[in-house]
Automatic annotation (TrEMBL):
It catalyses: AMP + ATP = 2 ADP. This is adenylate kinase. PANTHER family: NUCLEOTIDE KINASE. Monomer.
C-alpha cells in the first residue's frame, strides 16, 4: 500500500508535465522482480498489481481488465472512460476533445496524462492501491512518463485477427442506465492458411437494458478504421518496448469470454486464485 501511495504522490508532481520538468524530479521506486511469470504468486502477500492492458480497439481490453480488477481488488482505470467523462462535462476541454475523439485521433499526451493524474490522486485519497490500466500508455512518450513514476509489473497484450476488430467495435453497446457493456456482433471467422478460425457469440443485454442501449459516437466504421490505423502506427512500438524489458505477455484470444477467460487466468497463473476466491465467498 505504502509503495503505491508513494507512486501516486510522485505522480502528482511528475504528471503535471506541462512544465516538462517531470524527469528531473522523477522518484523511481524499486520493485521486486516481476512476480507474474514463473512460480504461482500469492497476490494477497505482495503489494497490489500494477498491470497494463494493450491491444487494438475492439479487442476486449475493457472486458478482461474489468474482470481482473474485480478478481484482484484493484481499480480498472480506462483512459477512454476518463476522456468520455471529460467529454460529457461542459467546458472548453470537452469541445477540444470532441473534435479529436470523433475523428479517431489520439488526445495529446499532456491532456491524457493530466486526466490520469487526477484519477490516480482521487483513488489515492480513497485508499486505492494498485491498478489495471486500459488504454494507457498509447504512445512511447506516455510509456516513458509512466516508467518515470512507477514500476509496471506486467503488460498484457491481447490479440485478435484484424478482420474481427471492426465488427466487434461496431457491435459494442452500453446500457445508459447500469453502465454495463454488451456486444451484439456474431463473429464467425473461418480458419485459413494454418490460422485457426474464431467464433464469438454475442454478449446480449438482459431485457431490462434492451431499450437503454447506446453506441459510442466514435464506433462508426470510418472512425474505427482510423483508430486501428493510428493504433498500428503509434501503439505497436510499445509492444517492442515492453518486450525488451521482459514485461510483455502476448495473449491470442481463442474466442469469446467463455473460452478466453479461463485461458487468460491460466496464462496469468491466477486460475487457482479464482477458485480460492469463489470458495471464500
Ligand atoms: N492514452 C491515450 N492517449 C491518447 N488518447 C487517448 C488515450 N486513451 C484514450 N484516448 C482517446 O479516447 C478515445 C477512446 O479511447 P478507448 O475507449 O480506449 O477506445 P479504443 O476502443 O480505441 O481502445 C481514443 O480514440 C482517443 O481519442
Amino acid at each position: 500500500m505504502a509503495r503505491v501511495l508513494r507512486v501516486a504522490r510522485s505522480s502528482s508532481s511528475l504528471f503535471s508535465f506541462g512544465s516538462r520538468s517531470y524527469s528531473a524530479e522523477a522518484t523511481h521506486v524499486s520493485s521486486p522482480p516481476p512476480p507474474f511469470l514463473g512460480a504461482r504468486r500469492d497476490v494477497t502477500k505482495e503489494r497490489n498489481v500494477q498491470w497494463v492492458f494493450l491491444g487494438c480497439p475492439g479487442v476486449g481490453k475493457g472486458t478482461y481488465a474489468s474482470r481482473l480488477s474485480s478478481l484482484l481488488g484493484v481499480p480498472h482505470i480506462a483512459t477512454g472512460d476518463l476522456v468520455r467523462d471529460a467529454l460529457a462535462s461542459s467546458g472548453p476541454l470537452s469541445q477540444q476533445l470532441s473534435e479529436i475523439v470523433n475523428q479517431g485521433k489520439l488526445v495529446s499526451d499532456e491532456i491524457i496524462v493530466n486526466l490520469l493524474s487526477k484519477r490516480l490522486e482521487a483513488g489515492e485519497a480513497k485508499g486505492e492501491s494498485g491498478f489495471i490500466l486500459d488504454g494507457f500508455p498509447r504512445t512511447m512518450r506516455q510509456a516513458e512518463i509512466l516508467g518515470d513514476v512507477t514500476d509496471i509489473d506486467l503488460v498484457v497484450n491481447l490479440k485478435l485477427p484484424e478482420e474481427v476488430l471492426v465488427d466487434k467495435c461496431l457491435g459494442r453497446r452500453t446500457c445508459n442506465q447500469c453502465g454495463k457493456g454488451f456486444n451484439i456482433a456474431h463473429i464467425n471467422l473461418k480458419g485459413e492458411n494454418g490460422k485457426p478460425g474464431i467464433s464469438m457469440d454475442p454478449l446480449l443485454p438482459p431485457p431490462q437494458c434492451m431499450s437503454k442501449l447506446i453506441t459510442r459516437a466514435d464506433d462508426t466504421e470510418e472512425v474505427v478504421k482510423a483508430r486501428l490505423r493510428i493504433y498500428n502506427e503509434t501503439s505497436q512500438p510499445l509492444e517492442e518496448y515492453y518486450r525488451s524489458k521482459g514485461k510483455l505477455m502476448e495473449f491470442d484470444l481463442p474466442g469469446g469470454i467463455p473460452e478466453s477467460w479461463p485461458r487468460l487466468l491460466e496464462a496469468l497463473r491466477l486460475d487457482d486464485y479464482e477458485e480460492k476466491q469463489s470458495a471464500a465467498a
